[in-house]
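[Discussion] Sanity-checking designs against the backbone

I'm trying to build intuition for which residues belong where. Below is a structure token string of 197 positions. I'd appreciate it if someone posts a full sequence so I can compare it with mine line by line.
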């Protein structure tokens, strides 16, 4: 007989239902998205690039997958350390400003605080753009790389939207890229729910 054989069974507990998340909060947890392989530069210079790699389209919104790279020029070691520090995307701190202009004139800006910090946030009308993770992915004495994902809600399928970015600390002027509504609409048709046949 083992020392642990006569331990009592833990009491049964009731199953907790899956909490219902508002649409603006993030992608549904039970869907396989339709992918739009964008692969376009939002900004490009001899020193820096910012690009939109792809868009994951869900029934309620989409995830924008962005990357950036900054090359060292003639910065001193301290100046380069400052550039590397500024190259990490963190909500609420200086860094890249990202927004989306909808075809009807509405706009969403990824900002801090997020909508979840407000009373009545479950009744948001939108549009909403929230930072969903990312940051510096690597750096060396020659270049620094980073990435970020942004959740956009609702999905802009009625015409073309525009992704807009600016990064004052790194000298990137306001730049934009068209997000084609017909591509989102096509990808929406490829979204699959995990539990539907």
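Best answer:
Here's mine. Compare freely.
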């Amino acid at each position: 007989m083992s020392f642990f054989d006569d331990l009592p069974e833990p009491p049964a507990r009731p199953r907790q239902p899956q909490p219902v998340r508002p649409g603006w909060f993030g992608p549904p947890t039970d869907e396989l998205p339709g992918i739009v392989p964008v692969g376009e530069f939002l900004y490009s210079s001899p020193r820096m690039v910012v690009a939109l790699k792809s868009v994951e389209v869900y029934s309620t919104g989409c995830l924008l997958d962005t990357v950036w790279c900054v090359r060292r020029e003639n910065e001193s070691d301290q100046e380069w350390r400052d550039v590397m520090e500024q190259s990490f995307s963190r909500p609420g701190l200086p860094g890249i400003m990202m927004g989306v202009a909808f075809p009807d004139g509405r706009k969403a800006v990824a900002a801090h605080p997020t909508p979840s910090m407000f009373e009545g946030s479950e009744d948001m009308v939108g549009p909403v753009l929230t930072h969903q993770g990312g940051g510096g992915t690597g750096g060396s004495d020659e270049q620094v790389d980073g990435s970020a994902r942004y959740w956009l809600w609702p999905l802009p399928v009625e015409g073309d939207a525009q992704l807009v970015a600016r990064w004052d600390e790194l000298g990137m002027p306001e730049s934009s890229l068209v997000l084609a509504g017909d591509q989102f609409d096509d990808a929406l048709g490829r979204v699959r729910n995990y539990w539907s046949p």
